[in-house]
Write a structure and sequence with these properties.
- The complex is a heterodimer of chains A (about 775) and B (about 180).
- Helices cover about 40% and strands about 20% of the residues of chain A.
- In chain A, β16 (about 415-425) and β17 form a beta hairpin.
- Chain A has six domains: about 1-40; about 60-135, Penicillin-binding protein 1b domain (Penicillin-binding protein 1b fold, 2-Layer Sandwich); about 150-340, Orthogonal Bundle (Penicillin binding protein transpeptidase fold), CATH 1.10.3810.10; about 355-450 and about 555-700, 3-Layer(aba) Sandwich (Beta-lactamase); about 455-555, Beta-lactamase, CATH 3.40.710.10; about 705-765, no CATH class.
- By secondary structure, chain A is an alpha+beta fold.
- Chain A is built from 23 helices and 33 strands.
- Chain B has seven helices and no strands.
- The radius of gyration of chain B is 19 Å and the shape is flat.
- Chain B starts with a helix and ends with a helix.
- With about 180 residues, chain B is an all-alpha fold.
- Chain B has a domain at about 75-180: Serine Threonine Protein Phosphatase 5, Tetratricopeptide repeat (Alpha Horseshoe), CATH 1.25.40.
- Classes of the chains: A alpha+beta (about 775), B mainly alpha (about 180).
- At the A-B interface, β27, α21, β31, β33 and α23 of A face α2, α3 and α5 of B.
């Protein structure tokens, strides 16, 4: 009796326990469902802001030979074909290029895919024709995607819709990862058992038994810990998802979610971004062998990294291709053809990732956006970056620094560093930012953060302030003589010339061209250091420099970007325009959220700035910047200024043509002397860069209030080229009477007067 | 008497030259043009011929910058047309974006700076309207018609900023230049 009672009690306990377990289990599933379903239903992947370069505008007359245009298309990963087929391809016949363009989202409009034909000749674009053969006035190429602003945890992705997914991709995923995907309910016990058996026999994990749904769950909801409890949770969640959502939905989620590679801190998620990351093309343009490679990479993005472990990746890609043929997703012939092809991944350089420029973009946007908006809200950011200029600048910096390093080896092997900022002066567009030699390295951005002594780059501000007083012009004689300046606390400042010589009386334009320190200090003290400090601020420096006498010779630490802002106001004829990297930000729905329109403010009389700029052209023609013409054609007019800080710690050149302004800095990160003048270091990079860009001369029109004339370079006397040996041209206010070289101006002038008199007589008589 | 010489010179200049249809912007050369007639200093009054109908010999009169008229290239023209349509639809930011695109193609063309200024006026951004007018003016050397348009833009902008007397002055300059 007692036994049966005990047994009954035990049965009852077991029953209750079972009920509790079932209820608990049910509750747990309900709980999981409450978590999984809404989260997945309202799923929005965090979409890092995508950042685009300035699209290239094609129009008749643009200097661009067919080869250069083809290079641009290759940069945008257009594929050459014999017959134009799908978007993203082009066909070249000699000087004519037919392009099948992609659907493009521009800042203000979406342009559907189409075709355009470009006819080139004589180094320029001659005509643009649409598909009907009608002339088109201009045509924009796709804006190059240059990167994205991803969150701290580093997840970057481009989400694709099912329409953008080539049908082969889901088919291949099923064959390779989950053959029963279309039939199972989230888990595949048979696959698990098989995988367990294989792994047990080999003693290592060779085969995963997870369905695509389980992989999705793992990536989307769970962390990477390999515990039994996590496995159970994963299986339950997969079953819930399968019950709630259809297969197509789950497949699309998988394609957008899964991890496919690593780029430094940046985790590459989803096939949309992986396609860009490995091939530089949108997913719907991939060929069979490329799709097979991405599918191969799923199993182990670092183990099968096609850039680091090409052989492994290739072996697995070919395995994928053979499996696809075996399961009849493709034909045997297709597989054989694809196996014969190389991997086709881009090198890192052409994949177009510009950390220094992106850094500038990010800082601009942080003023207006929360970090989460940038890293999650799917914004599209359109910038002023010109990828050609950026790439050329990176090349020029590296070439020249490598050359200079060879010339002056340091004992401890420390290398020179440098930075470049390039702008389009009239619009203030920042078209390139190079933050150091290691362009792919997301580190110290010298273009923005290296505040270094500007040395003689300060002189144009001194001379502008002088011209503005009305007491100076380009021909005014200034004294290059020793000077002692009494400073606060009884200190005395005794500046010296670079050559440690003195040059006596010289015309202002000569003093600037040869960067004479003593003459400049005389001028600066006469003009007033406070005026000079104000000039810096007017031209665009945010913080007013300390108005001490040493400012005249550039004892001021500025970053290349700040220098670019100041010189841009000169290049822009006395108009300040805030330098901008970002033009417009577009929301995920395509609406414009924030624009950075072109804004200009007159900050100096344009005729006065013209006089200064004419003097700055003498720096390159006659003065410390002469070396520019060892690389540039003498027909190109360049205005600029060299800068060398004390003990050669910093080498600068800031200069502009009609089309481009560039500021270059060279130095060591630890601020040790370089032994380089501005001309020997920065200027060589500047001219190396400009030589390879389609630049135009500085050719601002002569203001009507000025006249052009000649002076003797050493005496400043007005003269004519036929009358003196060493002359330079200058611009002075029309009413200015200059001391003339005897027998030169009078000659020309009296000739005119005599004729006028004769002519008068003729009328009167 | 002080103001006379430039005035006389201006009259002679306007009398002796027919407006050139277009001449390329004069490039400042490394050295000023050796062969061409250079700018001569303003001569003292007593040496100047009086304003009369007859012309002196062309080479005797310094004329470094003959009148010219700015025009838009086809690409910039199409963007300006686009901008006009966008402005007409009240979409000023997009219209300004189109003009900025044109400015990237022809940054030194004062007509485009005037166009951008007009979009800013339409947005009641009078300060930028005025500044853009002044930018256009600094580029429009030698083209009285474009200078006149720039002054007109400045006049409207000043009016919008409530600076009536300056606006009237600017308008007067616009009118005077229009008669050239």
């Amino acid at each position: 009796m007692a036994t049966s009672r005990r047994a009954r009690r035990l049965r009852r306990i077991l029953l209750i326990a079972a009920i509790i377990a079932i209820v608990a289990d049910g509750l747990f599933i309900l709980y999981l469902d409450r978590i999984v379903t809404p989260q997945f239903e309202g799923r929005r992947w965090t979409l890092p802001a995508q950042v685009f370069a300035q699209p290239l505008e094609l129009y008749a007359g643009l200097p661009m030979p067919a080869d250069a245009l083809e290079q641009e298309l290759v940069r945008l990963h257009y594929t050459p074909v014999d017959n134009l087929a799908r978007p993203g391809t082009y066909h070249r016949r000699g000087s004519r290029i037919d392009i099948a363009t992609r659907r493009v989202q521009f800042a203000e409009e979406v342009r559907e895919a189409g075709t355009v034909s470009v006819l080139t000749g004589g180094g320029s674009i001659q005509r643009l024709l649409d598909s009907g053969g009608a002339d088109v006035p201009l045509f924009r190429l796709d804006p190059l995607l240059i990167g994205s602003i991803f969150p701290i945890h580093g997840e970057d992705r481009i989400v694709v819709s099912p329409a953008e997914v080539p049908s082969l991709l889901p088919a291949a995923l099923k064959v390779v990862e989950d053959r029963k995907f279309d039939r199972h309910h989230g888990v595949d016990p048979e696959a698990i058992a098989r995988a367990a058996w294989v792994n047990l026999r080999s003693g290592s994990i060779e085969q995963g038994g997870s369905t695509l749904t389980q992989q999705l769950v793992r990536s989307y909801f769970l962390d990477d810990r390999q515990t039994l409890w996590r496995k159970i949770k994963e299986a339950l969640m997969a079953i819930i998802l399968e019950a709630r959502f259809d297969k197509a939905d789950l497949m699309n989620a998988y394609i957008n979610e899964i991890y496919l590679g690593q780029d430094g801190e940046r985790a590459i998620h989803g096939f949309g971004l992986a396609s860009r990351f490995y091939f530089g093309k949108p997913l719907d343009e991939l060929d069979l062998h490329e799709i097979a490679l991405l599918v191969a990479v799923v199993r182990g993005p670092s183990y099968y990294d096609p850039r680091l472990h090409a052989d492994r990746a290739r072996a697995r890609r070919d395995l994928v291709l053979r499996q696809l043929a075996h399961f009849e997703a493709i034909t045997e012939q297709q597989a054989q053809d694809a196996v014969a092809l190389p991997l086709g991944v881009t090198t890192r350089v052409t994949s177009g990732y510009y950390p220094a420029y992106l850094d500038f973009v990010r800082r601009t946007l942080r003023r207006d956006y929360h970090e989460e908006d940038l890293t999650e809200a799917g914004l599209k950011v359109y910038t002023s970056l010109d990828p050609r200029v950026q790439a050329t600048g990176e090349q020029a910096l590296n070439d020249e620094l490598t050359r200079l390093d060879r010339l002056r080896k340091t004992k401890d092997g420390v290398q020179l560093e440098g930075a470049i900022v390039v702008t389009a002066p009239q619009s203030g567009d920042v078209i390139a930012v190079i933050g150091g030699r290691q362009v792919g390295f997301d580190g110290f951005n010298r273009a923005l953060d290296a505040r270094r002594s500007i040395g003689s780059l300060a002189k144009p501000m001194v001379y502008l302030a002088a011209l503005e007083t009305g007491r100076y012009n380009a021909a005014t004689i200034v004294l290059d003589e020793p000077i002692e300046v009494k400073l606060a606390r009884g200190k005395v400042w005794k500046p010296e010339n670079f050559t440690q010589e003195t040059y006596g009386p010289v015309p202002l334009t000569h003093a600037l061209a040869d960067s004479l320190n003593l003459a400049t200090v005389h001028v600066g003290l006469d003009v007033g250091v406070k005026n000079i400090a104000d000039t810096f601020v007017r031209l665009g420096l945010e913080q007013r420099p300390d108005p001490n006498p040493a400012l005249i010779l550039g004892s001021l630490d500025l970053a290349p970007l700040e220098v670019a802002q100041i010189f841009n106001s000169l290049a822009n004829g006395g108009f300040r325009t805030p330098l901008r990297a970002v033009r417009i930000v577009i929301g995920a729905d395509g609406t414009a959220l924030k624009a950075f329109p072109l804004q200009i403010t007159p900050v100096a009389d344009s005729a006065t700035v013209y006089q200064l700029n004419r003097m700055l052209t003498k720096v390159t023609q006659r003065g410390t910047g002469r070396a520019v013409y060892s690389r540039l054609s003498p027909d190109i007019v360049v205005a600029g200024k060299t800068g060398t800080s004390s003990e050669f710690r910093d080498s600068w050149f800031a200069g502009f043509t009609g089309s481009h302004l560039a500021v270059v800095w060279v130095g060591y990160d630890d601020n040790r002397p370089t032994g380089l003048t501005g001309a020997a270091g920065a200027l060589s990079i500047w001219s190396n860069l400009m030589r390879r860009l389609p630049i135009t001369s500085w050719d601002a029109p002569l203001p009507e209030s000025l006249r052009e004339t000649w002076i003797e370079y050493d005496t400043g006397l007005e003269t004519r080229p036929t009358c003196s040996e060493d002359v330079v041209s200058i611009a002075v206010p029309s009413e200015t009477v200059l001391p003339a070289k005897p027998g030169c101006i009078e000659g020309a002038f009296s000739d005119f007067a005599t004729r006028a008199k004769q002519w008068l007589k003729g009328i009167i008589h | 008497m002080r103001a006379l010489p430039p005035l006389i010179l201006a009259i002679i200049l306007s009398a002796c030259r027919l407006p050139n249809p277009y001449s390329a912007p004069s490039k400042p050369q490394p050295a000023p043009p050796g062969g061409g007639a250079p700018t001569l200093p303003a001569p003292p009054p007593e040496q100047l011929p009086p304003p009369v109908e007859r012309q002196p010999e062309p080479e005797a009169v310094p004329s470094p910058q003959p009148p010219r008229s700015y025009e838009l290239g086809a690409a910039a023209r199409s963007l300006v047309d686009q901008a006009h349509a966008q402005s007409a639809a009240g979409n000023f930011p997009v219209a300004a974006g189109s003009i900025e695109r044109a400015l990237r193609i022809e940054p030194n063309n004062p007509l485009l700076w005037i166009e951008l200024g007009q979009v800013r006026l339409a947005e009641s951004n009078y300060e930028q309207g005025e500044n853009l007018g002044r930018k256009a003016l600094s580029l429009a050397t030698g083209d009285p018609k474009t200078q006149s348009s720039a002054w007109r833009l400045i006049a409207y902008a000043l009016q919008g900023r409530g600076r009536g007397p300056e606006a009237r002055e600017a308008q007067a300059r616009a009118d005077e230049l229009a008669t050239h």
